[in-house]
Structures are given as C-alpha cells and as structure tokens.
Amino acid sequence: EGMLRFLLWALFLVWLLNGTKYAFEAVIQYVLMNKPFCMNNYQIGNLSLISQSTNIGTFLVGLLLPTVWLYQYINITGVLISYTLVFLANGITEIYFSTILTSLFAVVPVMIRTQLAKVVEKEEYGIILNFFYIMETILIGFAMALVFAVYGIEVAGNKDPRLLIFGSLGVPTQGVMLVFTGLIHYFMTKKL
User: Fold this and answer.
1) R_g of the chain computed on alpha carbons
2) What does the pLDDT look like over 58-76, one tens digit per residue?
3) Under a CB-based contact definition with an 8 Å cutoff, are residues 187 and 7 in contact?
C-alpha cells in the first residue's frame, strides 16, 4: 500500500510535466501563421475542430475501454511524434496530422487523478487535488514564459523558432515523461 501510494505520487508529479503542453499549444498558432506555413484563420480554426473531435473520440474510447496505461503511452508518444513532426513539417497536412497526435487521449491526467483517488483517504484528496492544480498552474506559467521568450528571441533574429521550441524544449520534455512513466509502470506492475 505504501509503495503503491509512492508510485502514484511519482506518476502524478511526472504528469505535471504534461502542463508544458499548454505552453507549446499557445505558441503554435504564432508559429503557424508565419513562414513556411502562413496559415490563415480558417486553417487555424480547422486545427481546433480536429483537436476537439479527436479529444471527444478518444474520451469516448476511454469510457468504453478503460486501460489507463495504454492511453498514457499513446498520449505521450503522440505528443512526442507531433512535436517532432511540427519542427520537420513543410506543409499544412503534416500540421493537421500533428494536431491529431497531440490530442490523442488528452484526458489521461484526469484518469491519473482518478487512480490516485483510489489510494488516498477522502480527507487527503481535496488537499492533493488542490496541490496538483497549484503546481500545474505554476508550471504552465513558467513554461509559457520560457516558450514565448524563446519565440521572441528567435523571431527577432529572423530564425525559424520551430527547432528550438519544439525540438529542443518539447521533445525532451515528452521523452522524460515517457521514460519515467515506463519506469513507474514497471514498478507498479512488479510484485512489491
């Protein structure tokens, strides 16, 4: 019981890194409206439609087939591939596909909070949930400040910000999440 609580806390903390995804999603519209994509408002709107449709579809799948670990791996790997695709993309089709990948099982953090609720006392859950939201908000704010600062520096220097933002910041963050989620999953499924 004690080790399970520790591993769920570790998983909870690793998934705080998922908050960095909001920073990358906030800056991507600026990136896409500039060269080489020069997307217009209609195309940006299509991205939202694709994202929300994927979110709803994967949410329904999650309700019907609740296998949290599989969805965690799909989510992390999807975002990892998506960020790689964004900084390698030459056309709008790749960007639409990357949006689908980013949106796959975006509901996973909610599933993890549900798993944590199974091993904590009722009195602890409110405090833990508030702690999570506060930490996630701080991390999102820090990540957004960092990503927008990098974007401003890169654009001011007439450089393409995709490599630095998505390649140097986004891909490693998702890589760390994948490795630690794998390790935690291994220890949780091993007989303790």
Assistant:
1) 18
2) 989 988 887 878 888 898 8
3) yes
